[in-house]
UniProtKB/TrEMBL annotation:
It comes from Photobacterium ganghwense. It is an enzyme of class 1 (oxidoreductase). It holds the Pfam family Aldedh. GO terms for molecular function: succinate-semialdehyde dehydrogenase (NAD+) activity. This is Succinate-semialdehyde dehydrogenase. The lineage of its organism: Bacteria, Pseudomonadati, Pseudomonadota, Gammaproteobacteria, Vibrionales.
Length: 482
């Protein structure tokens, strides 16, 4: 891995203000999913180090929460500048450990940085209010306070953005963060921590621990000092963390799995819809929680849409993320490859047709993109998140039917609909039971809008003004005797 600043490649963790290794020197390898080669080793830390990080976070917060918002803004702004300045190195680390094409990795770094910039600005706008009182000679003050120490646990599909989306608002609000990144992609997180320190995030305010997920997660959820858990990952682990956090009644922010419907109506601009699917389905090799999972195409345009989509998919080059022509990198690991293959096998066994797709080269994590037609609701691909580059096309005839089918899931994260009709657009926007709806848009993520799900896709919102509010408690003071 060639870096301009080699000190960004950390093989130690930032705990309570110090870069540390495990007491017994235990490490775990970080593997490049394209080559299978070990690129670094990171410490295996556990409960003791987590407790020390929590303790330091509590102490650091005492001062941090009292700093002027303007000062927190300045530190965050510096962190943003450093992330932008080091884009190439961060993207190199990201592609090496996660696999996504280098250009896409650079895009993620810009997206990650945008959360720090946004929340640097929002830090100044944590307004309270004065409410007309119910009693004479009194005032009602409503103010905002940081929730406290935050335990953050992040996934591997966005190794940079999922961290800044939590840390930006947390630091802006005056909180401290103890973060456990995904074991597959710890290096991006550690590099971001190094840049945070350089930007002036005080010692102890931000710890990043790699290692034993259960031990670290257990210590974070058991702690009375940790007041909020912010988690992005699988629904199963999210539910577990919620259960573990019940005893101390923590605030929960959960961004869990999706099963996004993507509806293409017969009056849609088909070329735009195909472009939308290319982004919503194949970005990050299909490994995002907002990826289109069920593509519903109306009867009249089904064949035309399929043909146009196959043409585009044929042009996607699958390769190592450092290949300048790569459009799709590897899946994260073999378990992911097996899951995607099992969804295809199940669909074909139940009567689907493979409209396009090369076989998966065994022994690698690369998965060539596939287009499946005649998909039906009894297939696993309809009810489970595939998390891979497989576009499954379902047929539908009318709007009521497709809305009912689209909503028939426990998930409620992202959804998409393409139509030229204003009335149909509003119908989909209002009746799709999802936290987010893209109308004639396949890419909806941005720091300025509230990202999050309903139903079993999660709790809370990240980004936007709501993203800051989620890291603050509301306090009400009745000022009497005036
Ligand atoms: P995925 O299937 O996408 O890897 P996971 O939910 O397993 O999703 O992982 C998301 C994050 O949750 C990772 O950082 C992982 O290490 C962490 N994690 C997994 N199991 C636990 C657990 N029992 N307690 C705390 N964190 C966990």
């Amino acid at each position: 891995m060639k870096l301009n600043d080699t000190s960004l490649l950390k093989q130690a963790c930032l705990v309570a203000g110090n870069w540390v290794t495990a007491l017994d020197e235990a490490t775990m390898p970080v593997i490049n999913p394209s080559t299978g080669k070990v690129i670094a080793h990171v410490p295996v830390l556990g409960k003791d180090e987590t407790l020390s990080a929590i303790h330091a976070a509590e102490k650091a917060m005492v001062t941090w929460k009292k700093t002027l918002a303007k000062e927190r803004t300045a530190v965050l702004r510096k962190w943003f500048d450093l992330i932008v300045e080091n884009t190439d190195d961060l993207a190199t680390i990201l592609t090496a450990e996660q696999g996504k094409p280098f250009n896409e990795a650079k895009g993620e770094i810009a997206y990650a940085a945008s959360f720090i910039e946004w929340f640097a600005e929002e830090a100044k706008r944590a307004y309270g209010e004065i409410v007309p009182s119910h009693k004479p000679n009194s005032r009602i003050l409503v103010s905002k306070e940081p929730v406290g120490v935050v335990g953050a646990i992040t996934p591997w599909n966005f190794p940079a953005a999922m961290i800044t989306r939590k840390c930006g608002p947390a630091f802006a609000a005056g909180c401290a963060v103890v973060l456990k990144p995904a074991p597959d992609t710890p290096l991006t997180a550690l590099a971001l921590a190094e840049l945070a320190s350089r930007a002036g995030i005080p010692a102890g305010l931000f710890s990043v621990l790699t290692g034993d997920a259960k031990a670290i997660g257990g210590a974070l959820t058991e702690s009375k000092v940790v007041k909020k858990i912010s988690f992005t990952g699988s629904t199963a682990v999210g539910k577990l963390l919620m259960e573990q956090s019940a005893a101390t009644v923590k605030k929960m922010a959960l961004e869990l799995g999706g099963n996004a419907p993507f509806i293409v109506c017969d009056d849609a601009d088909l070329d735009a819809a195909v472009e939308g699917v290319m982004i919503a389905k194949f970005r990050n090799a299909g490994q995002t929680c907002v990826c289109a999972n069920r593509i519903y195409v109306q009867d009249r345009v089904y064949d035309a849409f399929t043909q146009k989509l196959v043409e585009k998919v044929k042009a996607l080059k699958v390769a190592d993320g450092f290949d300048p022509d790569a459009k799709i990198g590897p899946l994260i690991n073999q378990a992911a490859v097996e899951k995607v293959q099992s969804h295809i096998d199940d669909a074909l066994a139940k009567g689907a047709t493979l409209a396009f797709g090369e076989p998966q080269p065994e022994g690698t994590n690369f998965f060539p993109p596939q287009v499946i037609t005649d998909a039906t609701d009894d297939m696993r691909i309809a009810s489970e998140e595939t998390f891979g580059p497989v576009a499954a096309l379902f047929r539908f005839s009318d709007d009521d039917e497709v809305i009912r089918r689209a909503n028939h899931t426990d998930s409620g994260l992202a959804s998409y609909a393409y139509t030229q009709s204003l009335s149909r657009a509003f119908t989909f926007s209002e009746r799709l039971e999802y936290g987010m709806v893209g109308i004639n848009e396949g890419l909806i993520s941005t720091e300025v809008a509230p990202f999050g799900g309903i139903k079993e896709s999660g709790l809370g919102r990240e980004g936007a003004r709501q993203g800051l509010e989620d890291f603050m408690d509301t306090k009400y003071t009745l000022m009497g005797g005036l």
